[in-house]
């Protein structure tokens, strides 16, 4: 058998394949950028306490400058410590769910009514299936102060960080047999 004749390479056909590879990676890049942008929008849309709210400005505290003297004297005045910015608690803007982990029928609904009467935005009440240490208000990190305030309003002393499967955009109250 004789070898088949070699066909000359067409430079345009090679170029077309290269361009398809470039187009594919450009599309992939555009898709990736779009996905990141969408994820950012979803994050902002699902953060009701922070999204679209203007930043609160805390006035700076300045100390008067010392007057120059002939001999320097040590200052006995303590320097001001930087203060941590604390968000005010807004019960009407804070979501709350109340769960009953007792055999007392209607306890979650009763406590949810107390929370509503105190101004909290109660979005649900139901039964909790699982084991918890005692009646507790669970909070996501950004709602710690609100969790403590809700605990005071309901007479609950145990306030802890939220855990899975709790939702992290609201306060979760779980009532046990120790709630009175």
UniProtKB/TrEMBL annotation:
Residues 50-87 are annotated as: Disordered. Gene3D superfamilies: 3.30.70.2390. Residues 95-179 form the LytR/CpsA/Psr regulator C-terminal domain. Coiled coil: none annotated. Pfam families: LytR_C (PF13399). Residues 72-81 have a biased composition (Low complexity). It comes from the Bacteria. InterPro entries: LytR/CpsA/Psr_C. This is LytR cell envelope-related transcriptional attenuator.
